Amino acid sequence: MNTFFCSDYSRQTGEDVIGSATNYETYVLVECPPPWKSPAFDSKWVPHNLKLLVEEVTRTKLPIKFLLIANDLSHKVDQTTLLIYQKQSGLSQGYRKHEFKLATIDQVAAIVKKFLWGSTPDYEKETSITREILVCTHGSHDKCCARHGNPFYFHAQNTISDLGLDNVRIWKSSHFGGHRFAPTIIDLPEGRYYGILDQDSFKSILTRTGDIQCLNKIYRGWGILPTPIQILEKELILRHGWDWFNYKVVGKILEQSMDNNTVLAELTFEKSTGSLYTYQAKVIKDETKTLQLKSSCNAHKPSVMVQYTIASVMLASNKVVTCSV
After folding, report:
1. For residues 28-61, b (16+ Cβ closer than 10 Å) or e, as one string?
2. Based on the domain organization, do 172 and 257 belong to the same domain?
3. Any idea what DSSP says for residue 146?
4. Mind listing the pLDDT tens digit of every residue in the chain (325 residues)?
5. How many whole angstroms separate alpha carbon 222 and alpha carbon 219?
6. Can you point out the beta strands (E) in 237-320?
7. Which structural domain range is residue 240 located in?
8. Contact criterion met (CB below 8 Å) for 324 and 292
9. In terms of Cα–Cα distance, which of 295, 317, 222, 212 is closest to 7?
10. At what angle do helices 150-162 and 199-207 cross, to 10 degrees?
11. Alpha helices in the chain (DSSP H)
12. Considering the domain boundaries, does residue 325 fall inside one?
């Protein structure tokens, strides 16, 4: 009997990874030693009050993603790291980070509630870490994440160390979608998603060097943008190169057909000079790229994976700001 791996099947069919990043207002990352069950917050070390909070947020359909995270020290340390990433409004480069060091995981639920109600909890800590990489290694959710995620995490630690990037921290993470693109990561505070990674493409992401075309294969999209705008954003990255990652961006859907087959998307970006540009694109469902496949190793039947393509793109406006010295 052949063992089915959804990531192998996705690669064989040539599924395009773009447009698969998930859009959330807030990420709540809780340090918790593995092993993790599926669902993750049923795991042994997760306290009852935190499990109840996650269930409540899920039930009310708030755009908040709770994830468990761990590194090689999580079993040994006598404190719990809590990271909350809040999406910035308007033109932005992603999310704003809040880091808390707590004595135990039992304190997490109260701190998160306080934060979501709009008050600033105690225990917040300044840190030199400016970038967090989450690698999905959640094998109990999908075996591809263990098969590809764990070795990737191991080698990625060495890659970060070899590059001397002291400001970058890497974590194992519970499931955040797209396991058929394993190994898959979220790069915070930007909130960009990547998949089908190897150490060479990971190095390009970390250093923003190398052939920008590698993003054609590995870039799942930017989590601050709706799916059709993720496709437009990738098009603009390929035009502007790695400089794009220094720009502030905001996107919106202007029009959408009833069947969702056609979308008019708009993306505005601001360069570091202060110049503003707005692009509009017609994004259409691409029947030639749309696939039927099993979305996970445990799926009983195939799902339709709708793929979009850009039919047209135009510069709608640009406002060049000149600075007088």
Report:
1. bbbbbbbebbebbbebebbbeebbebbeebeeee
2. no
3. I
4. 446 545 554 565 566 789 989 999 999 999 999 999 988 999 999 999 999 999 999 999 999 999 999 999 888 888 999 999 999 999 999 999 999 999 999 999 999 999 998 887 777 888 889 999 999 997 645 556 677 789 999 999 999 999 999 999 999 999 998 778 889 999 999 999 999 999 999 999 999 999 999 999 999 999 999 988 999 999 999 999 999 999 999 999 999 999 888 999 999 999 989 999 999 999 998 877 765 555 555 656 766 667 888 988 988 888 765 443 3
5. 9
6. 248-256, 262-270, 276-285, 291-293, 303-305, 308-319
7. 225-319
8. no
9. 295
10. 50
11. 6-13, 48-59, 108-116, 143-144, 150-162, 199-207, 215-218, 227-240
12. no
Could you tell me the CATH number of the domain that includes residue 158? 3.40.30.10
Please check whether residues 250 and 302 belong to one and the same domain: yes
Same domain, 154 and 254: no
d(CA 210, CA 16) in angstroms, rounded, equals 21
The sign of the dihedral angle between the CA atoms of 212, 214, 215, 219 is negative
Classify residue 215 as exposed, middle or buried by CB count within 10 Å of its CB (0-12, 13-18, 19+).
buried
pTM: 0.91
Token code pair at residue 154: 């191991």
Tally of domains within the chain: 2
The H or E element that residue 241 is part of is none
Structure tokens at 261: 């087959």
The token duo for 266 is 């708009």
Contact 170, 156 (CB under 8 A): yes
User: 86: which 2 tokens?
Assistant: 């809040």
Spatial contact of 305 and 295, defined as CB atoms under 8 Å apart: yes
Where does a domain end: 186, 216, 246?
A: 216
Residue 288 falls inside a structural domain: yes
* Rounded-to-integer distance, Cα 132 and Cα 136, Å: 13
> What CA–CA distance (Å, rounded) separates 34 from 20?
26
